[in-house]
Amino acid sequence: MKLFNRILATLALLALLPAVQAQVPREYLLGPGDIIRITVFQNPDLTTEARVSEANAVTFPLVGSLIVGGLTVPAAEQRIAKALADGGFVRLPQVNVLPVQVRGSQVAVLGQVSKPGRFPLETFNTRLSDMIAMAGGIAGTGADVVIITGIRGGKAFRKEVDIAEMYLHNTTDDDILLAGGDTLYVHRAPVFYIYGEVQRAGVYRLERSMTLIQALATGGGLTPRGTQRGIAVHRRDAAGNIQTLKPGLSDTLQADDVVYVQESLF
């Protein structure tokens, strides 16, 4: 009866394994916060579910503390098997490590991306562009700048990377390597507002170096009652006060500018 129960437990584990491994790549590096289930074939008493500590270690029966953080799943299996064999506890041990919860080597991607969430660092050299691609890319409402925060060398780390500039001017040094625990944030794209005597009043994305005449074109142009002489731009200054400006058509707009086109008096 005991042998039969062991066989059932092994079959259940094998049935579960493909689904979990499909979500966690074999080259994934274990890290602090990960929870793993360790089993040894024909030794059910050694089955252990453990959390990888901040010191990258887990405690396993018979062998005590073992460093598994920074190892792939196969490498962790080999290290545990070697410890069991070297200690003479199990002859030719067959060890299986199954990630139950993956937390330590994840990056959070927030804000204006297609698929915000937490994503594993599948390899040790995952770069910013790789992670943005995993999140489905920057959404149409997202800005070009990605803000990266995390820890480097025990100190708080923050960097802003202009994705468009990185590719337009080949500044590949900005495509930095990511580390477990990093957070990427994409703010909404800057916008401007246009109303009054224009064909399509509303809120629009402010493109780089966008001029007033380009903003008018985005709004569909003036209505027959509109006049270029009656165009005003309302802009908030550093103190939070609203200024009313009379810019030229070739002047550039700023984020959150409000463009108003007056009706012609004649």
TrEMBL record:
Q: Name one Pfam family in it.
A: Poly_export
Boundaries of every SLBB domain copy: 106-186
How does this chain sit within the bilayer? Answer: Multi-pass membrane protein
- Molecular function GO terms recorded: polysaccharide transmembrane transporter activity; porin activity
A GO BP entry is: monoatomic ion transport
Domain Soluble ligand binding residues, every copy: 191-241
Q: Which residue positions does the secretion signal occupy? A: 1-22
Task: Indicate whether Ribonucleoprotein appears among the record's keywords.
Answer: no
- Entry GO terms, CC: cell outer membrane; pore complex
Q: Give the principal location in a single coarse category.
A: membrane
Where does the record say this protein resides? Cell outer membrane
Sorted UniProt keywords: Cell outer membrane, Ion transport, Lipoprotein, Membrane, Palmitate, Polysaccharide transport, Porin, Signal, Sugar transport, Transmembrane, Transmembrane beta strand, Transport
Residues forming the Polysaccharide export protein N-terminal domain are 23-97
- Tell me which family the UniProt entry assigns to this protein: Belongs to the BexD/CtrA/VexA family.
The protein depicted here goes by the name: Polysaccharide export protein EpsE
Q: What lineage, starting at the top, does this entry show?
A: Bacteria, Pseudomonadati, Pseudomonadota, Betaproteobacteria, Rhodocyclales
What gene name does this entry carry? epsE
